[in-house]
């Protein structure tokens, strides 16, 4: 797939390098030529110096054939303009915008533009929205306080009710995908090995989630 990235700061450059390493075609736009130094001499994608929401510059970056666009400059207004031009003028469906203001982020998320709040920013979360497959974090709310994560259920959890796991691990199991079919979790639903459980968790607690779940399952036994 071809991805256009607007902004070559720490996040933009990390995204560009990750995507090209995975074999994707990438074009990076930044108004400062010196910003491209972050990409290194071995970068295999394209670099275009200019204003990211300028249609001509976007055309040079291959916006007509782009599958996704990431607007990750340091300014909300620029990112919003890029996202709107990509979505409204070029019909790009997979658009991600970095928005610092949570209120603005909420508005644009409602318009179908995926946003990521500064507080929760990681390259992996942007990649998750750009690519069909990605890391464990599925969704982060505009204020970056609550996240939806995906966890594969192993044999240790099998046979336990999801309601028990919720109570001891302090998570909320929203839905479960089993044998290709996803359904909302109910109080009496029993975990099976191989389930994909989608859990709502406080974003700050994601890093320690695995250990908390291990403790919860040990307690359950």
How would you summarize this macromolecular structure in one to three sentences?
It is built from seven helices and eleven strands. It has 221 residues and is of the alpha/beta class. The mean pLDDT is 83.
Describe this structure in words.
The chain is α/β, with parallel strands linked by helices. It folds into 2 domains: 2-136, 3-Layer(aba) Sandwich (Rossmann fold), CATH 3.40.50; 146-220, Regulator of K+ conductance, C-terminal domain (Alpha-Beta Plaits, 2-Layer Sandwich), CATH 3.30.70. 31% of the residues lie in helices and 26% in strands. The chain contains 7 helices and 11 strands. It has helices at 10-21, 55-60, 76-89, 102-110, 123-130, 162-169, 209-220, and strands at 2-6, 25-30, 46-49, 68-71, 94-99, 114-117, 137-140, 146-152, 172-178, 181-184, 196-202. The chain has a 6-stranded parallel sheet with strand order 3-2-1-4-5-6, with helices on both faces. Strands 7-8-11-9-10 form a 5-stranded antiparallel sheet. Helix 1 crosses helix 5 (123-130). It is elongated, with a radius of gyration of 20 Å.
Topology (SSEs and partners):
Blueprint lengths: L1 E5 L3 H12 L3 E6 L15 E4 L5 H6 L7 E4 L4 H14 L4 E6 L2 H9 L3 E4 L5 H8 L6 E4 L5 E7 L9 H8 L2 E7 L2 E4 L11 E7 L6 H12 L1
Parallel strand pairs: 1-2, 1-4, 2-3, 4-5, 5-6
Antiparallel strand pairs: 7-8, 8-11, 9-10, 9-11
């Amino acid at each position: 797939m071809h991805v256009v990235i607007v902004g070559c700061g720490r996040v933009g450059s990390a995204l560009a390098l990750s995507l090209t390493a995975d074999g994707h075609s990438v074009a990076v736009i930044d108004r400062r030529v010196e910003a491209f130094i972050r990409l290194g001499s071995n970068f295999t994608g394209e670099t275009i110096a200019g204003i990211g929401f300028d249609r001509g510059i976007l055309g040079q970056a291959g916006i007509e054939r782009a599958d996704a666009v990431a607007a990750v400059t340091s300014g909300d207004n620029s990112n919003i303009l890029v996202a709107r031009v990509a979505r409204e003028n070029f019909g790009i469906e997979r658009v991600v915008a970095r928005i610092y203001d949570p209120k603005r982020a909420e508005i644009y998320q409602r318009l179908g533009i995926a946003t990521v709040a500064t507080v929760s920013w990681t390259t992996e979360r942007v990649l998750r929205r750009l690519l069909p497959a990605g890391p464990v974090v599925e969704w982060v709310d505009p204020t970056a306080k609550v996240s939806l994560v995906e966890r594969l259920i192993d044999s240790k959890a099998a046979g336990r009710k999801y309601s028990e796991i919720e109570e001891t691990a302090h998570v909320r199991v929203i839905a479960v995908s089993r044998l290709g079919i996803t359904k909302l979790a109910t109080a009496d639903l029993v975990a099976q090995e191989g389930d994909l459980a989608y859990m709502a968790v406080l974003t700050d607690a994601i890093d320690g989630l695995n250990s908390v779940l291990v403790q919860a399952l040990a307690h359950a036994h």
